[in-house]
Amino acid sequence: MDKKYSVIVSGENFILNIDGEQKLYGFITTRNVKAASIEDAKKAAIALVEHDIDLIKLMNINQSDLNPPTLFVEEMYKLS
Question: Of 54, 66, 64, 61, nearest to 27 (Cα)?
Fold first, then answer.
């Protein structure tokens, strides 16, 4: 049975085009997911952020290989 989780995901080293200006950004976002385990919840939340259309539209395709954009789970909570 799937459980509900609230997952806080951090992003670092993202070159984003905001208001016509490209800069290096970090961000924090929350995703609520249903998953069978904590590990599955982490993977699902990261996948949701990776495939977020709004984020993809802002990203620069020439991201640095030396400092690649990174997503990681900062915190997570089991929801009732």
Answer: 54
Both tokens of residue 21?
Answer: 């200006």
Measured between alpha carbons, how far is 16 from 24 in angstroms, rounded to an integer? 6
Residues 15-30 pLDDT 10s: 998 898 889 999 999 9
CA distance 8 to 63: 23
User: How distant, in Å, are the alpha carbons of 10, 37, 42 from that of 3?
Assistant: 22, 8, 12
Rounded-to-integer distance, Cα 27 and Cα 18, Å: 13
Q: What is the pTM of this model?
A: 0.88
